[in-house]
Amino acid sequence: MAAFGLYSHIQSNRRRSIVLLAGLFFLIYVMVYAGALVAEALSVDADLATLMQLAWSDFLQAAPFATVGAVLWIVIAYYFHQNMIDALTGGRDVTRSEAPRLYGLLENLCISRGIPTPKLKLIESDALNSFATGMNAKQYSITVTSALLDRLDDTEIESVLGHELTHIRNGDVRMMVIAVVIAGVVSFFVELVFRLWFYNGFSFRGRSDERRGGGAGVAILIAIGLLVVAYILSFVIRLALSRSREFLADAGSVELTKNPDAMISALRKIEGRGELPGATSAVMEMCFDNPREGFGELFDTHPSVDRRVAALVKFAGGHDPGPIALAPQPGDGGGDMAPAGPWGSAKSLPETHSLPGTGDGDTAIPPASPSGEADDSAASGPWGPHRG
Prior knowledge:
Blueprint: H1 6-43, H2 48-89, E1 92-93, H3 100-113, E2 119-123, E3 130-133, E4 141-145, H4 146-151, H5 154-169, H6 172-205, H7 209-212, H8 216-257, H9 260-270, H10 281-284, H11 305-316, E5 353-354, E6 364-365, E7 379-381, E8 384-386
Parallel strand pairs: 2-4
Antiparallel strand pairs: 1-2, 3-4, 5-6, 7-8
Helix pairs in contact: 1-2, 1-6, 1-8, 2-6, 3-5, 5-8, 5-9, 6-8, 8-11, 9-11
């Protein structure tokens, strides 16, 4: 990821996105064929070759309906996805009089690039996060949490808004909505076929060996394999669409704000504090940071904050202050303790002290040495000494 040469990366990323989305449609057709193969195996006494031919004939008849169904699903998402997301997250429209600071920062960024200003939405939450949604210029909106506004300063909020604007400018938001919708179709088909199979499996197992025919069992195993592979690939494709774009969005934010240090500081403050109550995994994948992690690097929905910061330090010349501890606020119930993860509470962050005169304790620097002087081994950064 680099702050320069950004647009060539964007074009390449868009081409890959189109290919991946076409692949998701292909997976839907795999679902249909697998379902047809299961249906034929449960109803026809024949060998494997005959069952596969019958399933192919069924697929050719069902494919147009599957295509129409998938397109209809996308049309519904096109017009109503924002309502569904707002219902899950509690997001609401925020007026200029309610958030003049937020509107001013966003409008300045949009004016500087001559792009329309998206709508603004607010979620009343202790989580620190944001995300962009929409399928066209009239629908685009940026949603932020109330805690994000309370805990980040203006330059950091500007960097977060620049990140979300870059997602909109790059077409990431539209692609992610479509990808999530189509992946939802795949998941629905997989669950439907498995439910039907398990429901009819008892009658299938009750048949005599002569009645089943020689190819039914093998046909069902093939169908199950196709379903499992299609489901896993749809999940991986959806994650790939999300992960590759975060580096570009960070770089785009730096290009807009000319302030890599503010982007790094925002990442460090939001790190591990972005879990939105009630949000599904699909919504979290669209967020600025997704603290939910799967099994291993392959299933991480976002690059780690450390990797994103390292890229900004290397290519944009930013400075990393390291993990930032936020001062406790009413309702936090934990102060410097990082939010609990899927395997329990994370370790408490190292002891930190706030900069003199800040008053909020939000920005952390390493503690002084026993002699009372700051550690000279730390390089000086925009927020005080920090370790290189």
